[in-house]
Amino acid sequence: MEKEQRESRSGEKFTEELANLGIELNEHQKEQFDQYYELLVEWNKVMNLTGITEYEEVNLKHFTDSLSIARVKDMHQVQSVIDIGTGAGFPGIPLKIVYPELEVVLLDSLNKRIKFLDEVIRTLGLEKIRTIHGRAEDFAKKKEYRECFDLCVSRAVANLATLSEYCLPFVKVEGEFISYKSGDSDEEIRDAEFAVKVLGGKITDVDKFQLPGTDMGRSLVKIKKVKNTAGKYPRKAGLPSKEPLKK
């Protein structure tokens, strides 16, 4: 009964906002999002996953926000994705639910979040998706991860220069890093241009919009990988955040 009430209250709004992104969920996918929501709220009682727990807000501010990448990227043309600093699984798990053909890697530095993500993957029956526990600075040096992904995504809270050093080393040449930022990130984006260039990238687009049904301004920053990242990047753990690359 509770689930039916949620569906009548919020399911239509979620469906409508996804339709605006060109996304139509089948019944199995709707059920997966509901299962994800239930797990998020349940685990959030014992660990800090999100400050947003109301059904409609989770649909809009986590699920729809994660899928807003469809505004700027044809995800059907992507084979492999790595989500850096995935936290509670955003945007990686919503992308995997909607685009089941994707090969997805979720990276996070906190082991208890990894356990939560593994439980989500198991409960939802997701395939071709796995978690890795550790720091981006370490995994980006590993041959099996370095410059291996078509797309890197991150909703992590760090400045763009720092995020670029974490993320661009994972991206293939001609691939992309897309960063989810707030709507008022113009100065941060300008300040990151030097770091992006040094790391082999080029900012090609900044898509600004308001997240539907909220007062949240968003920016999707598209960075194309135009050449290989020099082997010395990323620098050792901690340095990208303490000393972002700048002129």
Note the run of SSEs as H and E.
Answer: HHHEHEHEHEHEHEEH
Structural class: alpha/beta
Helix share bin: 40-55%
- Tell me, what's the shape? globular
Give the oligomer, counting copies of the same chain as homo and different chains as hetero. Answer: single chain
Mean pLDDT: 93
List the main descriptive attributes of the protein structure presented here.
single chain, 247 residues, alpha/beta, seven-stranded mixed sheet, 9 helices, 7 strands, 40% helix, globular, disordered N terminus
Question: What's the SSE blueprint?
Answer:
Blueprint lengths: L1 H19 L6 H18 L10 H13 L12 E5 L7 H7 L4 E6 L2 H14 L4 E5 L2 H4 L9 E6 L5 H8 L3 E12 L3 H13 L2 E10 L6 E9 L13 H4 L5
Parallel strand pairs: 1-2, 1-4, 2-3, 4-5
Antiparallel strand pairs: 5-7, 6-7
Describe the model.
Mean pLDDT is 93; it is low at 1-10. By secondary structure, the protein is α/β, with parallel strands linked by helices. The protein has helices spanning 2-20, 27-44, 55-67, 92-98, 111-124, 136-139, 160-167, 186-198, 239-242, and strands at 80-84, 103-108, 129-133, 149-154, 171-182, 201-210, 217-225. It contains nine helices and seven strands, in the order αααβαβαβαβαβαββα. α7 links the parallel β4 (149-154) and β5 (171-182).
